[in-house]
Structures are given as C-alpha cells and as structure tokens.
Amino acid sequence: MSQMNRRRALQLLAALGTTGLAAACGSGTDTADEAEPGSPIKIGLIVPGSGPNKVIGDEITNGFQTFLTLNEGQLGGHPVTVVPAEEGDTAKTGQAAVDRLINEGVLALTGVVSSTVMLGIRDAVEQARIPLIGSNASPISLQSVVYIWRTSYVLNEPGEALGEYLRQTLDESSRIAIFGTKGQSSQDVIDGLRRGYEQGGRRLTEDPIFTEDFANPGKGVYTGSIRKALDRRPGPDAVFCHYTGAQAVQFIKQLYAAGYRGPVYAPGFLTEGTVLSQLDDGEKGEERALIQNNPIRTALNYSADLNNTANRVFASAYRKTYNVSPTTFAMASYDAAQVLDKAIRLVGGNPTPQQVNLALGKIGQVDSPRGAWQFNQSRTPQQKWYLRKVQLDGRMLANVVINELATLG
Fold first, then answer.
1. Mean predicted confidence (pLDDT) in 122-141
2. What's the rounded Cα separation, in Å, for the pair 206 and 47?
C-alpha cells in the first residue's frame, strides 16, 4: 500500500472507516495527485468459470479486483482492463486460454487454479515471454522458469511447516494416519510433511491412503478408506489430510461418523472458503461440538484475522464488497495485482512484457495482508506460515491464528 497517494488514502478512510490509514499509506505528493494516467494496459486473468474449482476462481477474481478498486482501477499508473479466459482443467484448455490472451495483447497474465493447467502452459508462457503471476497453482515440479512467478506458495510448504510442528509436539511413538487425493498435489503436500517430520530419527510409519479425486463426493465415499486406518491397532493418535472444498466437507463428516475422536492436521485449504459454514450445524449441533472437542489445526500463509495495516485495509474492503471474509486464494490474487503494480511503476512509460518481467525481480519486499514477504530465487514467496485452529469466533466457527510456525521459501 506504500504506493497510495494522499487522495486515495482519504477516499479509503471515507469508504471503509479505517482509522490511522492515512498515516500508514499517505506518502504521495500534490504533484503526483495531479499526474495524468499512463496508457491503458490489459491483464489476462486465467480462471475456471465452472466446475469444482470455480469457487477458487471467483475468489481469485475478487482478490485482483479488490486491489484495482482500492487503486482507482490502475496498475503502476496505467488504467487496466482485465481480460478473463476460461482455464478449464487440462493442459489443452489452459493452452487455449493463453493463446487467446496473447492475441488480445495482454501485458501480463495471472490466475491459474489447477496444477495440471500450470504445468501444461509452462512452455507456452516461457516462449511467449509474457510474465505470468500465478496466484494459486504451485507444484514442486515447476522449476527453472523465467517468466512464471507465484504469489501463493509451493505445495510442499504447508506439509513441511506442519511436519516440523508435529515432530516437536507429538510423542515419537505417535501414529499419524495420512489421507489425500490421488494426484500430484497431495503427493507434494505429503512429501513436505515427510521433510518436516522425518528428522532426528523420526519416521512416518503409516503409508498414505490416497482416495479418488471426486469433484463432488457423495456420502460414504471415504468411509472405507477411513475404516482401513481406524481399524488398525493401535488406532491413530492424529490424522493428517489434504482435501479442499466439497471433498473437505465430506471427509471431515465421514471421519467423525466413523468414530474418530482426535486431532486433525492439514494444509489450510481444508477449512478455507465455505467449508466451515457447511460443517457448522449451530450452537446445539453435533458436528460443531465434535469440532470443538476434537481440534482441527491447519497451516496456511494467511488468515483473515491477521492484525496488520495491509490486512485491515484488504479484509475490510473485501468484506464490504463481497460480504464474506477473504481467503488465501483472494489474498494471493490481491498480491499478484500488487506486485504487478510495483513492477509496472518501476518500468514507467510504455511498459513491455519483458520490461515488466525484469522489474518483478527488483520490487523487493511486499507489504502484504499475510505479512511482509519477498520473491526468492525460484520466483516464489519467502513467507511466514501460521498455525490456525478452528474455533468459535463470536457465534460462528472460524480459522483463528494461534501462532507462527515457520518462514519458508
């Protein structure tokens, strides 16, 4: 937010009622206030418009738009047109989106939910020499890239942060049952768990149980896999899992229905978005009581309750517009807009994609809602990871930060 001028800060004060914002953000001059905007630019936004990932795509869209709203529809002093393109869920559909946006003459690309799509478009983006600031998909195997940057995370990092925490808090004899969907994403997460946990002679003794990657799983689809883990003796002392969205809702419901009563650990995607509202059956409900008595702890790079100026501005504006708290997906997209703003401003004049790409390596520290971070050599964030616990916040279940876990990246 350091690029805001005084006039915009005052507009935010009026719109959001945020105290102290002018002192934190108002660093412009009267001359800058009167400056004419630069030439219009286009940014390509690759997101799914349908299917199970649509909800993440919507949050990515909303996060990017929140930054534009707070900055008069501009990036780096240039009026912006956002050009959306359908991501789909395959390399072929991702390639079609990239081709169309290149033909549209975009200055940069952003978005991308699916790791399959991200890997599928890698070569096309590199060959086109147009920067892509990915705001979600971040497989470990995406290496040696020049034009692809990520404002989210690398998928092994939440597992690694939790692995270190579990190594320090669980007894060496503890049994951890591990679950995830078939596919590279869960494998990356579990590889991170091993990296964090298997130190000083510690070993994960259980083989992971991989379930089918159902878009909309029905009741009972996970029961057999859960029973397989619970029926072993002795029973598990903890469960580690990697699910999102509808899969997360059904896995947690079926885990409790199978009789598990113990802690659950997971990357924060398990309880992001609408998952908690779908699990919360009210003050006298059985599921709420189970969650309160059997803690769900997650590791994530963001929580909407983080107490810093950048997050107060972002979360307030996001809630005001969309009537929900922002997720890590929205936050990463907001930061994608923020780093583009910084890079385009560094270039000045009439920026080209290649100039913006070079400038992305020079932006330094980012004042983000997640806390300060910066790009590392792999073009991913070096950032803090937080331990969150699902608990009541007022009358509703919420992800509440209880401490920091690690700085990774």
1. 96
2. 36
